[in-house]
Amino acid sequence: MTTSTAPATPADLAARYERGDFLLATARHALLASGVAATATDTDPARLSRALPGLFTGSGAPIAVGVLPFDTSEGTSTPGHLVLPRTVRRASSDRAAVPPRTALVRPVQVTPVPEPEAHLAAVRAAVSALSDRDLRKVVLARALDLDFAEAVPVADVVRNLANGNPRHTTYAARLPGGRTLVGATPELLLSRTGGSVLSRPHAGSMPRSADPAIDKAKGEALLASEKDHLEHAVVVESVVEILRPFCRVLDVRGPELVSTPAIWHLSTTVTGELVDQDVTALDLAAALHPTPAVCGTPTAAARSLVRELEPFDRAYYAGAVGWVDAAGDGEWAVGIRCAEIADTSMRLYAGGGIVPASDPRTELDETSAKFRTLLAAMGLEI
Ligand SMILES: C=C(O[C@H]1C=CC=C(C(=O)O)[C@@H]1O)C(=O)O
């Protein structure tokens, strides 16, 4: 195992990413992991975590990187997947910088899954199910399949994501079976640095506008929206409730208005001090996941409704992407604004929180805006 200290900027690392590597990068810090010293694959994140000390010792790698799927409940078929890499490069910088952009070929076919009309029907069904089944919130997603005449240039997509989303976390992770998950997420599930934990739940959205005055008004409308504050509060309550037993102090600040290039969001910052230093970043991420930002409340009933209403398996969309080291420190991002790439095709995912006051058309438009993160990286407007 080598940990490179050669000077590099986060932009250099994003530019050096190659298909098969693991990347977690903002314009100010980045981690690039390459090669495979060992892997661990398990549907139970707790078992993955318990296996880690032995894997660290056996492989000599002091860090594990990887993904958790959306569905981590008993009986799920999509496993969490960790890689103990051979090489890890890290970079941080006071000056934000991004790798250059590359022009990409256009897809030969674009297929929404389901069709927009069917998503509208699913949102209506979800709103009814909320009261019938006593749910406070459920997150419903749709997908967009892009087919190309040639292999998708994964590394170029990743560089374009980093170029277009410098304030957010661009990620790429190899999945079991050789596919690649790529995305640029604004949402931090959990980081642990020594005794300090940090979570930045996001929920409540409003598509942005190219017109500055309209854009500003949209942000203000989100900040004033009772429906979005409710959607957001459900997530913060869950994060706080789950972190509280692990932390001796917990500080909650927010919600505040934040933005990606495509969307306004409500975001809250939760910080805490760990009681027990043996609890790792992966343990905490597994305890929090799936938050109501990607699933709903109560979790099990919301997950059942997601399975009933979405015509696809989410796999790693709305999962978690990150790393944990032998000391227990680590960072796990929420796996949204992403696509799964398999050779000549890619599936984009976008979801939104549904509460009793949700309007189906607004929800459809919100998912269209969320697709823009990946579409912009592909140089597409659809
Ligand atoms: C589930 C997604 O976004 C979540 C994160 C931020 C805002 C959200 C919302 O307003 O619905 C979602 O909870 C997604 O982008 O696919």
From TrEMBL:
Which EC numbers characterise this protein's activity in its record? 5.4.4.2
Any one GO molecular function term:
isochorismate synthase activity
Q: Does the keyword Isomerase apply?
A: yes
What Pfam families is this protein classified in? Chorismate_bind
Keyword field contains Cytoplasm: no
Q: Which UniProt keywords apply?
A: Isomerase
Superkingdom to which the source organism belongs: Bacteria
One of the protein's GO biological processes = salicylic acid biosynthetic process
List the PANTHER family: ISOCHORISMATE SYNTHASE ENTC
The organism named in the record is Amycolatopsis coloradensis
Cite the Chorismate-utilising enzyme C-terminal domain residue spans from the record.
117-370
The name this protein carries in UniProt is isochorismate synthase
As its record notes, the protein acts as a catalyst of: chorismate = isochorismate
Give the record's family classification.
Answer: Belongs to the isochorismate synthase family.
